[in-house]
Design goal:
Blueprint lengths: L1 H25 L11 H34 L3 H9 L1 H5 L3 H9 L6 H37 L8 H24 L3 H7 L4 H7 L1 H15 L8 E3 L6 E7 L4 E5 L4 E4 L3 H4 L3 E2 L1 H6 L2 E9 L9 H7 L3 H9 L12 H6 L7 H15 L12 E4 L7 E9 L4 H18 L13 H11 L4 H6 L3
Antiparallel strand pairs: 1-2, 1-5, 2-3, 3-4, 6-8, 7-8
Length: 443
């Protein structure tokens, strides 16, 4: 069969050459018989024929695939059509057919040079086709694998890079007419230089494997890196770069090894849990913290949030005529202070709040922190039932605003540094003005 194909090619080539010589002779170029023009015209003709055949077959294959997609909805045919694998594979036709037809018109060193060009073209067509096929298989595996959420793009780029490197080695070996194995052996002397040149690529490759293996970062993850301006969503993880879109819509490019060489904060766990933490503090003026009085208890008993607690628990009421009142409060689990009641009120308020998580695994508490020169910090610690940023901020703001606004009901006041208005009002009072008169002046 091969002998028949070779004989057919030979006869077709000879007929083509003869037609070219006849045409040139009719045009008055009698030197055609000596082979000055006919060989190069023959080369141009076979090149045009080869590319024409390739484009026709490529159009036909795309037409058939598109027709199949219209009748069969399948991921495989869709990916095959988008990858243009068949069209890339058909690029084998020009260099192969040219390589076959060259010996019938050329010989010697020129033939060898032209055939080397064809072989090099075949090598790169093979590299392109194999990389496209690998990408097609990778997409099919990645789409149906449990690892589809992991950033594996860097590993795919490494596979592509290996085939491209092999293509470069084979190309150089063809040009210098040496074995690829000998060329690879000789590259050992340049290993140190290659390590310096491809340092970032090698580090990125190692980091990419770690990122994928340990599922450290995925696309659409919100990450922050302490001490840097990185605070945004990961949009792409590749071999050499990690692209992060900050919340001010600026883009930051990071080398992948940054993600494994220093601490990063990944907010994926918070998003997957369905709850985001509120941890805010109000600084209470120490001078406003006192034991409960009958008037305070009576006033608070009208509020449903704290009324049941006051009714079920004995609250120690301060009696200025009884020196033992502070000592009685020591034995009471619910200390009879306005701050203790305020803490319980906020705890009940958060427990009833519809936007706060009430499941057992989510901590909910209101606690006093270490006092300092500004007062007693009162911390609210709970979790919202949404992780949406805007909704979270609204819920947090509403809770803190309500807590500050309800403080005077407990005869508690937040601490804040004195402003210029405070000093002016103080000086006016010292001069005999009444507070209500000072307020009327708009100060």
């Amino acid at each position: 069969m091969l002998l028949s194909i070779d004989n057919n090619s030979s006869s077709a080539a000879h007929r083509l050459l003869q037609h070219i010589r006849d045409i040139l002779s009719h045009m008055g170029l009698h030197q055609a018989s000596s082979g000055i023009y006919d060989k190069w015209i023959y080369l141009i003709v076979i090149v045009l024929q080869s590319f024409l055949a390739m484009f026709v077959l490529s159009w036909l294959s795309n037409f058939i695939l598109k027709h199949i997609l219209q009748h069969r909805k399948g991921a495989f045919f869709g990916n095959l059509y988008r990858s243009q694998l068949i069209s890339r594979a058909l690029w084998f036709i020009p260099p192969t057919s040219i390589h076959i037809m060259l010996p019938f018109a050329f010989s010697g060193t020129l033939l060898t040079s032209l055939q080397r060009v064809c072989i090099i073209a075949l090598v790169w067509v093979m590299v392109s086709t194999v990389n496209t096929f690998v990408s097609l298989l990778w997409d099919a595996f990645y789409e149906h694998s449990r690892m589809r959420n992991r950033p594996m793009k860097g590993i795919l780029q490494i596979i592509h890079g290996v085939f491209i490197a092999l293509g470069c080695i084979v190309t150089v070996s063809i040009l210098i007419n040496r074995s690829p194995a000998a060329l690879i052996t000789g590259l050992g002397a340049f290993a140190a230089i290659l390590l310096l040149i491809f340092k970032d690529t090698i580090l990125g490759f190692v980091a990419g494997i770690q990122i994928a293996q340990y599922d450290m970062v995925r696309n659409d993850d919100w990450i922050t890196i302490p001490g840097t301006i990185v605070d945004g969503v990961v949009t792409d993880v590749s071999l050499n770069t990690v692209k992060v879109r900050n919340y001010d819509n600026t883009l930051i490019m990071l080398p992948p090894y940054t993600l494994v060489s220093q601490p990063i904060q990944n907010w994926r766990g918070m998003k997957e849990s369905g709850g985001r933490r509120i941890m805010q503090s109000i600084v209470v003026d120490l001078n406003s913290i006192q034991f409960c009085t009958p008037e305070l208890i009576k006033r608070l008993s009208t509020h449903s949030v704290i009324a049941n607690f006051i009714e079920k628990n004995g609250i120690t009421i301060y009696n200025p005529t009884n020196d033992n009142t502070p000592h009685e409060a020591l034995g009471n689990n619910q200390a009879g202070t306005n701050l203790a009641l305020f803490r319980q009120y906020l705890t009940n308020y958060l427990s009833l709040h519809p936007d706060i998580q009430h499941r057992e695994e989510y901590t909910l508490m209101v606690r006093s922190l270490q006092p300092d020169g500004n007062g007693m910090p009162l911390q609210l610690y709970c979790f919202t039932n949404t992780t949406h940023w805007e909704s979270y901020e609204i819920i947090q703001s509403q809770i803190m605003e309500y807590a500050i606004a309800i403080m005077p009901l407990f005869e508690l006041y937040p601490f804040q540094n004195a402003s210029g208005r405070y000093y002016i009002a103080q000086s006016l009072v010292s001069q005999g003005y009444k507070p209500e008169d000072i307020g009327a002046t708009g100060i």
